[in-house]
Each structure stands twice: as structure tokens, then as C-alpha cells.
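ok new one. same drill as before - C-alpha cells go in, u give me an amino acid for every spot. 93 of them this time. try not to just spam alanines like last time pls lmao
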């Protein structure tokens, strides 16, 4: 299930596109987590400690957070490869 891509095979332009795509996904994950925290706070203030308002969003937050961690590691790999390719391009010129 793990889709491990070899970023060394991609060109610098392809790495930039992949970085933008993964960065957008990470931002979307952060927005979803914030929205779910808002649901938890609203549920606690409005209805008290309920299953629907606390546990379901908490489970979803954990799932989105785990996916976000993998996105951040992919983003770090891409940026590392981009820095390497930019450094080798400068040394070749």
C-alpha cells in the first residue's frame, strides 16, 4: 500500500510539481484537522461530552494526522532531492 517513489529519477521541474501537490495536500489536511477540532469544541460547548461530537471527530483527526505525517516525510524527501539537484547544477556550471 505504501507508494514509495524514487525522487532521484525525476527532473527538477517534476520535483517542483510534486512538491506543490504534496504541499497543497498537507495544507488541506491541516484545514480538515482544524475544522474537526472546531466540531469538537462546538459539541462540547453546545451538548456536553457526546459520542457524536467528540469521539468520531477525534478518530478522524488521528487518521488525518497519520496521513499528514507521511505527507511531511515525502515533502522532506522531495526538498532534499531538489537541494541536491540544484547544488549539482550549480557545480556543473
Amino acid at each position: 500500500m505504501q507508494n514509495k517513489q524514487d525522487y532521484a529519477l525525476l527532473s527538477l521541474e517534476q520535483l517542483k510539481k510534486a512538491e506543490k501537490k504534496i504541499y497543497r495536500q498537507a495544507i488541506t489536511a491541516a484545514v480538515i484537522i482544524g475544522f474537526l477540532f472546531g466540531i469538537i469544541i462546538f459539541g462540547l460547548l453546545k451538548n456536553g461530552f457526546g459520542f457524536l461530537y467528540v469521539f468520531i471527530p477525534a478518530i478522524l483527526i488521528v487518521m488525518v494526522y497519520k496521513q499528514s505525517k507521511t505527507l511531511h516525510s515525502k515533502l522532506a524527501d522531495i526538498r532534499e532531492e531538489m537541494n541536491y539537484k540544484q547544488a549539482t547544477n550549480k557545480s556543473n556550471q
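The chain has one domain: 11-88. and btw The radius of gyration is 19 Å.
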